[in-house]
Design brief:
Blueprint (H helix, E strand, L loop, with lengths): L6 E4 L5 E4 L4 E2 L4 H11 L5 E3 H8 L5 H21 L5 E3 L3 E4 L4 E3 L23 H13 L27 E3 L3 E2 L4 H20 L5 E3 L13 E10 L2 E10 L4 E10 L4 H26 L11 H13 L3 H17 L4 H18 L6 H14 L5 H12 L3 H14 L4 H13 L4 H13 L6 H14 L3 H14 L4 H13 L3 H10 L5 H10 L6 H10 L16
């Protein structure tokens, strides 16, 4: 098959479609043009039928909208067939353009010339959702505002993803029009993102330089930011793109107040965490994650280790250990490997509910990792976690506060800092810290730990409805997390819903009593009376023998 696309779709200026031979395809229906525009701006050029019906025919009843979409697709296929084009695909759920046969100017940085409006002259006055979508797109592509600084030059496109190094290029943010406040906010956010991402020591970051004539680096990923003023505040749109196709892997629009620097810093930290999580997911999509596969680079090796650790099970931990051992044999005392090794051993202890007597060797490993990179916030984080598990709340807080100072966006540091409070019998201060951690890390695979700590704090305070809701949120993604089952059972029983409590308890706790009791035994409450209270709350209708020993995890 030729690399030349069969159809060219132009959305800047008056929308039009041309064949590869340059012949214009006459499309008279506004709805058909709108349909093509919405597909062309979608990830992988595809939309669900439900979305299209709501946006393009939202003013009609559901059956009418379904019929209208079918009719428009049929007419559009006929138009394309007359032009010798076969580019439209659909099934019962999805409508799409064949991305191997279509080129759209929106995805072509080199084709964005002049000051042309996105879909100039197109409107569907009766369809409010489409009009809102169109306004957002025009703001995004405002030719006076969206052009990149002239100092940042684009590189020639690369067709093969594997030819691009697995780095993230932070493109200098753009600001709308000639708004001085937006330009100032763009510079501030750009500086903040560079700092926040650099603090995440495992991320391979390349920063664009808006004050030189250097090219934007040829990297596998780009982080772009666009700032638009909005009623005294700023709307910041962040987009994490995979090259060379500029596929949007994560995007979010946040409202930031220039008068609230602390809130702006939190939004920047949140964005950095989302970029880190999205990077992990993207690399997972493309790499063989088995421990035995050939590894081409240190970055790939570190990413695979992180992937396996994040699976949080013994089998994946074993694969991560193999990779670390292989790396250590090649580069002994590697600072880049010591930190993930400490991370692995820490959570291996958690999964195994290890005895505190074996923590000494782990403390030595963590200190070695901290010496290798004193600026890495994960070192004091790991130290703080270890101290928490040994019920040394004061010492743990010192380490965790240091981690928060080194990296104010490190969500896990706030999780464990909050945990030191509820585990010491003071759940009230824990709640704000845990909520802040959840705000910072919406994509973190360890969110269930923060939610578990939050649910426990609510239960300790007698806020049973909130504890119940939190426990049920955990089980939506982690149905095997025994603490969530315990909190749900205890909260239901405390609310008088004992029948439901028994049903929940039967799902996991009654089937795996050693797992449940081992969890209770291991929970590092300073006052062990809280463990007895939680057990009594879960086993509300049973007589617990005096002096009965709890089993260890199995």
């Amino acid at each position: 098959m030729s690399d030349q696309p069969d159809a060219l779709i132009y959305l800047f200026g008056t929308p039009r479609v041309e064949s590869s031979a340059g012949r214009r395809v006459e499309i008279s229906s506004k709805k058909a043009i709108a349909l093509l525009a919405t597909l062309a701006k979608a990830d992988r050029f595809e939309r669900s039928r439900t979305w299209l019906q709501r946006v393009l025919w939202g003013s009609r009843a559901q059956k009418q909208a379904q019929s209208s979409l079918r009719r428009e697709l049929s007419n559009l296929r006929a138009v394309f067939a007359r032009a010798g084009l076969d580019v439209l695909r659909s099934d019962n759920r999805i409508v799409s353009l064949d991305e191997t046969r279509v080129h759209v100017d929106v995805s072509d940085e080199h084709g964005r010339g002049g000051k042309l409006q996105f879909c100039e002259g197109l409107d569907l006055a009766s369809e409010e959702e489409f009009e809102e979508w169109l306004r957002d797109m025009r703001l995004h592509f405002d030719r006076e505002t969206y052009d990149r600084p002239r100092s940042v030059q684009r590189v020639e496109p690369v067709s093969d993803r594997s030819a691009l190094p697995p780095y993230i290029a932070v493109v200098p943010p753009t600001a709308a029009g000639h708004d001085a406040a937006a330009a100032m906010m763009a510079r501030s956010i750009g500086d903040g993102l560079s700092v926040a991402l650099t603090r995440m020591r495992w991320l391979p970051i390349v920063s664009g330089d808006g004050e030189s004539d250097r090219q934007t680096p040829a990297c596998r990923y780009l982080l772009e930011t666009n700032i638009i003023p909005s009623e005294g505040e700023m709307r910041a749109t962040f987009s994490f793109l995979e090259m060379p196709g500029r596929i949007i892997r994560w995007t979010d629009t946040r409202t930031i107040s220039p008068q609230d620097p602390a809130s702006a810093a939190d939004e920047i930290a949140r964005t950095a965490n989302c970029v880190g999580a999205s990077f992990d997911v993207c690399e997972q999509r493309h790499f063989d994650t088995s421990a035995s596969g050939a590894i081409d680079s240190v970055n790939e090796e570190l990413w695979r280790i992180r992937f396996h650790i994040n699976q949080f099970n013994r089998e994946s931990f074993a694969k991560a250990r193999i990779l670390i051992d292989q790396g250590m044999r090649k580069t002994p005392e590697s600072g880049e490997l010591l930190m993930p090794q400490a991370n692995l051993e820490l959570w291996q202890h958690w999964v195994d509910c290890a005895k505190a007597t074996i923590f000494r060797a782990l403390a030595v490993l963590i200190r070695a990792a901290m010496r290798a990179d004193p600026l890495d916030a994960r070192g004091p984080l790991f130290n703080g976690i270890l101290e928490t598990w040994q019920r040394r709340s004061g010492s743990a807080r010192t380490h965790l506060e240091q981690a928060c100072t080194l990296d104010p966006g490190l969500g896990q540091a706030y999780v464990h800092l909050g945990s030191t409070y509820y585990l010491a019998g003071d759940p009230e201060p824990a709640i704000d810290l845990l909520k802040h951690a959840l705000f910072l890390t919406p994509l973190d695979p360890k969110r269930f730990l923060a939610l578990g700590a939050l649910g426990t704090s609510y239960w300790m305070l007698g806020r049973y409805e909130e504890s119940l809701a939190t426990a049920q949120t955990i089980q939506a993604t982690h149905p095997g997390y025994v603490l969530a089952h315990a909190l749900e059972t205890a909260s239901l029983a405390a609310m008088g819903r004992t029948g439901e409590a028994r049903e929940v308890r039967a799902e996991l706790i009654d089937r795996k009593p050693n797992l449940y009791r081992g969890m209770l035994q291991w929970m590092p409450f300073v006052d062990r009376g809280w463990i007895a209270k939680l057990r009594q709350a879960v086993e509300f209708d049973r007589i617990i023998p005096s002096g009965e020993q709890l089993a260890r995890c199995s």
